[in-house]
């Protein structure tokens, strides 16, 4: 005998509620494309600390609306082809709902279009301008500053504070290094300063004597390196020191990356070197911004009581996950279009690395005012002293 209609309806309702409850408990899967090995790994290793800490923090607090975060980390080794293959794996086999990265712009140039075609939100942490275009890549939102912001900060310090006019620009042959050197030269020329010497160097080249000798012979009074490869940056500093050439070095944040310390022939080779940096990780009167200090205090116990990473990378990694949390909580959903709508209406999201704002017309979230210049050899808990003004 058939059950009454009302009983059958009640059963269907219970099944539906059970299915909805099960879906609510499914993890939110985040793909993390990170170059944890290779010549560009120093930033990724530090960022990974922040990403993992944010995931663990959110999960300890019960997840997002009851859903735990599942982080799927893939090491790209800094290789664009490998990054594309791993992105496709995350998108189509692992079925992630969000992608963070890759870390390096050269890889991101290859992966951002792939992620866009899959209709998956992408938190971009590459700096070159071409990675963000709300029409071509409507679900790509940048958390890091643009490369132009870094370069403008470095150029302003070299030209306006140090009063230098004879600039040697050094980049590497990666997609990022090539683009950066080109942008740096173009922005200098807009300021009325044509570089006296420009060169692209393979990031693994061991002897830079020829390049630095030519830079000095050109009459350069400041060397401006735009490379994320800390090994190459250390060799620039070593070659300058070995030559006895006390020319200031002003450039990419890799100038102050902590791994450089172990690569220098002499500690003093790190003097007279300055780097584009951030308000969030710069000491003012011996103090850091409260949000930065709070994250340092929270991380230190897990790191053995000390921080051996450039902390702005850690803060950036942490913020990428918190941005996803913000959008999902606000939308009440992981739906890509709802995610997009939330971030495009976000005006002052208080991260550690920065306070972010995006709009339908601009998917770059980092404000110009957060760029400062730091003294390279003043590392303390991952942060730095402001350069003299």
Throw out a few tags for this protein.
single chain; 389 residues; alpha/beta; Rossmann fold; 5-stranded parallel β-sheet; 3-stranded parallel β-sheet; 12 helices; 16% strand; globular
Describe the structure.
- There is one protein chain.
- By secondary structure, the protein is α/β, with parallel strands linked by helices.
- It has 2 domains: 27-146 and 294-370, Rossmann fold (3-Layer(aba) Sandwich); 148-283 and 373-385, 3-Layer(aba) Sandwich (Rossmann fold), CATH 3.40.50.2300.
- The chain has 12 helices and 15 strands.
- It has helices spanning 5-25, 41-60, 80-93, 105-117, 147-161, 175-190, 209-217, 230-243, 260-263, 290-299, 311-331, 336-344, and strands at residues 28-34, 69-75, 98-100, 122-124, 140-142, 167-172, 197-201, 222-226, 249-251, 273-278, 282-283, 349-350, 355-356, 371-375, 384-385.
- The strands form 5 sheets. It has a 5-stranded parallel β-sheet with strand order 2-1-3-4-5, with helices on both faces. A 3-stranded parallel β-sheet has the order 7-6-8, with helices on both faces.
- Helix 9 links the parallel strand 9 and strand 10.
- The longest helix has 21 residues, at 5-25.
- The radius of gyration is 23 Å and the shape is globular.
